[in-house]
Amino acid sequence: MLHILYIIAITAEAMTAALSAGRRDMDWVGVCIIAWVTALGGGTVRNVLFGHYPMSWVEHPEYLVITAAAALLAAFIASIMTKLKKLFLYLDALGLVVFTIIGCQVAQEIHLPYLIVLFSGMITGCAGGVLRDVLCNEVPFLFRKEIYASAAIVTGAVYIGVEHFDGSEMLATVSAAVVGLTLRLLSIRYEWHMPKFVYRDEWH
């Protein structure tokens, strides 16, 4: 089930990434690269940091085909996608939760400490979006007021906590998914935001 959700998540992430590329007038190659970076970048950054190989897209090259096809499809139906913005926000929330849980599982497989497991989940869930925004010359979504990284942290914390005390990976996965997805969707619905730091004084 987690693998199916992962495929859905990378497809949705690739499609929304294509729109970001389109807003920057990129060509078809640029659209595909932004889609790959967004959908697969979080796991790639995690694996590079922890020396965990092979990359998921090397082991499963079909992920590259799926995300590229989704991105090119999005480019053709961009006008329709704008009418489905809320749906893709929900799919993005699903992707955040799924990527976070997978990131935690990978870190556990290589026997990393709990804090690093949590960090791994957050990186996997969020790094792809940061890379997308940097490449598209935008302030990363993660660094703005949205409850995004914090939702990933909560998801990872629930996963680690439930598995530690209960020992069931299935229960930990379901619990983390429900809590993380609920938090992210509620933050979208009720426009919950993290406090912002605003500083305008010049030092010279």
What would you say this structure looks like, in words?
With 204 residues, the protein is mainly α. 75% of the residues lie in helices and 0% in strands. Helix 6 packs across helix 8 (149-166), helix 6 (85-109) runs antiparallel to helix 9 and helix 7 (114-135) runs antiparallel to helix 8. The protein is globular, with a radius of gyration of 17 Å. The model has no long low-confidence stretch (mean pLDDT 93).
Brief overview:
This protein is 75% helix and 0% strand.
Query: Could you describe the largest sheet, including whether it forms a barrel?
Result: none
Beginning-to-end CA distance, first to last residue? 56 Å
State the domain count: 1
Query: Helical segment tally?
Result: 9
**What ranges have pLDDT less than 50 throughout 5 or more consecutive residues?**
none
Number of strands: 0
Structural class of the secondary structure composition?
mainly alpha
Task: State the share of residues found in helices, binned by percent.
Answer: over 70%
How large is the share of residues in beta strands? Answer: under 5%
Mean pLDDT: 93
Q: What is the string of SSEs from the N terminus onward?
A: HHHHHHHHH
